[in-house]
Structures are given as structure tokens and as C-alpha cells.
Design goal:
mainly alpha; 148 residues
Length: 148
């Protein structure tokens, strides 16, 4: 990362703390498979080009027992035989939410994720993707990642 621009936590420790609290709540809820959550968050960091969170989330996935091979193949998940149907639906949703087309999230990606994950896990996934995008973008804009 190049020269730091601004320390967002120093500007508003409350706001930065609330974003981090959301992150902690997602881990603490236990409502979604931890491994799947980290795969999705890694895919978001890849799409956003956030090296800091890509490294952090990859380390967390390995700590949770993920193997290196799926992490290596995650950018090409569509062509990889390593991922189950739910593990394909989750990054598909992460990709459309991160790139967000002008007409919003297409019904196909949403419906597939809902069918495979169920509405409750889908809701947690949507929040996890949103928080991961917020953290990545804050880090990239500020060139400082003390938000954890």
C-alpha cells in the first residue's frame, strides 16, 4: 500500500468502531459456515483489489481449516471442480453485489443463493458481502487499514 491518506478511526472512532462491530457480529452469530463466509470475503477483496484484506481473509480461512488449493482456484471458481453448489452460489452473489449492475442484483443469482443457502443464511451472506465491500473500500480510499 502506498502512502497513508487518512486514519478513519482517528477521524471518527465511533463510526469505524461500528463497522468493525458489524464484522464481529457476523463472526459471532454462527449463522453461516465460517469457511464459506471467508471464501466470499476473499472473493470480494480480489474484486476490489484490496491486498490488505485479501491477505488477512486468506490467513483467516487457512486458520479455519480451509485448504490452499481452493484459495488458489477461487478467482476461477466457475471452472473449478473444488466448489460445491452453495460454494458457487455465494461467490456469484458476491460478484454481482460488488460490481452491482445498474439494475441491481439479478434474480438468477439471488434466487440460486436463496435456494441453496436458505433465506436466513442468505441474509447473513448479504450483510457479510456488504461489510466486506465497505471495509475494502474504506481501506483503499484511506490507504490505511486500522479498522479492525
Amino acid at each position: 500500500m502506498t502512502r497513508q491518506r487518512i486514519d478513519l478511526a482517528a477521524v471518527s472512532s465511533r463510526a469505524a468502531g461500528l463497522v468493525c462491530e458489524l464484522e464481529g457480529a457476523l463472526r459471532g452469530e454462527g449463522l453461516m459456515d465460517d469457511r464459506l463466509r471467508e471464501l466470499v470475503r476473499i472473493r470480494v477483496a480480489q474484486l476490489n483489489g484490496c491486498a490488505y484484506f485479501l491477505a488477512r481473509r486468506s490467513q483467516e480461512a487457512l486458520r479455519l481449516g480451509e485448504r490452499q488449493e481452493p484459495l488458489n482456484e477461487l478467482p476461477g471458481w466457475r471452472d473449478s471442480a473444488l466448489f460445491t453448489e452453495p460454494e458457487r452460489a455465494a461467490p456469484a452473489l458476491a460478484e454481482v453485489m460488488t460490481r452491482l449492475p445498474s439494475n441491481g442484483v439479478p434474480d438468477a443469482e439471488y434466487g440460486q443463493a436463496e435456494r441453496l443457502l436458505g433465506p436466513y443464511s442468505l441474509g447473513i451472506l448479504i450483510i457479510a458481502i456488504s461489510v466486506a465491500n465497505a471495509l475494502d473500500r474504506m481501506c483503499l480510499a484511506a490507504r490505511h487499514c486500522s479498522l479492525h
